[in-house]
Amino acid sequence: MEKRSPQVRPERGTKSPAEAAPKRGKKTTEYGKQLEEKQKVKEMYGMRERQFRKFYAIASSSKEAPGQLLLSLLERRLDNVVFRLKFSATRAQARQVVVHGHILVNGKKVYSPSYLTQINDVVSLSPAIEKHPVFMETVVEKRLASAVKVPDWLELDRKARSGNILRMPVRTDIQVPIEEYLIVELYSK
After folding, report:
1. In whole angstroms, what is the distance from residue 65 CA to residue 184 CA?
2. What is the CATH classification number for the domain harbouring 36?
3. Could you give the CA distance from residue 38 to residue 34 in angstroms, rounded to a whole number?
């Protein structure tokens, strides 16, 4: 008897049907665009849905343009102000610094990252955090020395490590490309 050599077959089933099928470009719906924009802003400011809705409710109940007022409210949150004043490297870190009681507003400790700052509020680092050389050198001193610009609505005193709220932030102060009208359209349905 003659020995037959085994037939070599190509591997079957190496790709799933989804991988093998050509990709079709899905067109994003108007709702999808609105939802994407809202999620982007929510994630940027580190907020959850419930809190974001509260801020939108405040903005929509005013006589001003709701989209612009929403962005102004988000910018005035204490964790964002701490980030903008270069007292932290990220908004998440700013939130943690606030929650741990290392931020003073007008000389009083504030533990709420969602605290809304007002005109002429003075935001500063607590004396306790200034005793932590690792944090001060790696975060605060490094950020203060960087070329990152503090927005025009804030005034930074580098020596005192404090900042002052000069005015309410306006739409032109926010450099990130946000299409706030999409968020307004999403919530107005």
Report:
1. 10
2. 3.10.290.10
3. 6
Asked whether the beta carbons of 41 and 68 are under 8 A apart, the reply is: no
Report the predicted TM-score, pTM, of the whole model to 2 decimal places. Answer: 0.80
CA dihedral 100, 101, 102, 107 (to 10 degrees): 170
Determine which helix (DSSP H) or strand (DSSP E) holds 163, and give its type and residue range. strand 162-165
Residue-range definition of the domain harbouring residue 176: 30-187
Give the mean pLDDT per block of 10 residues along the chain (189 residues).
Answer: 64 66 77 93 92 93 91 94 90 93 94 94 90 80 77 88 91 87 89
Coil, strand, or helix at residue 101?
coil
The separation between CA 147 and the C-alpha centre of its own chain, rounded to angstroms, equals 20
Residue 4 buriedness (CB in 10 A; 0-12 / 13-18 / 19+): exposed
How many structural domains are present in the chain? 1
Judge whether 80 lies within some domain: yes
